[in-house]
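Write out structure tokens for Transcription regulator ArsR.
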Amino acid sequence: MYALVAQLAEATDSKPVQCGFESHLGHQIFTLIRRPSSLSGWRAAAFSCPPLAALLEFWNCRIMESLAGRMNELLDRMRALEERVDALEGTTPSPGGSETTGSVGYRGEVNIGDATYAYEWERPTAHLTGASWDETMTNLAATAHPVRGRILQHLLHHPASVAELVEAGIVTSTGTGYHHLSALQSAGWIQKDSRGHHSIRPKRVVALLAIILAMEEA
């Protein structure tokens, strides 16, 4: 801004400016440029010099217009980013749409102790929404007990017999342990070896952890 005012001052030394001010205006502005002690000094000078006040008002408007344009540009970019995030997190069903498309899947590769589990599964959305959920809900319901949750969490790290689960304080008695283990085994979550040790079926490890993850609040 100082450079522009200086150019105006130089121009007014030799001829009147377009708005009709005399050449001595250039000397007045040049003096203000050389000794602008403070912003208040500029304002005071502007009141005593109407042409300078008009010039300052003009550039003030230009600056505000530039800031407003920049703000609108930033808002547009923010809206575009929000739309991209919404698209990544999930789409909103379109009103009146009847077609079911897309797919749902999960995958994972985990190391627990000395064991490594890798699994991936995916199904079309139409298959998941169209098939009966009865058997799936029955198998899922087998895990819906705090004691069974503790059993599964323990078996993730340590295959165990019923007696070992009692000793670890996971179940209160062998009878209770057999009851819960039988339900989990019937639902396909765990398996038992020839020594009577129970463990989670390898292909269920990632699925179990995916269910736990899915129930976390985003």
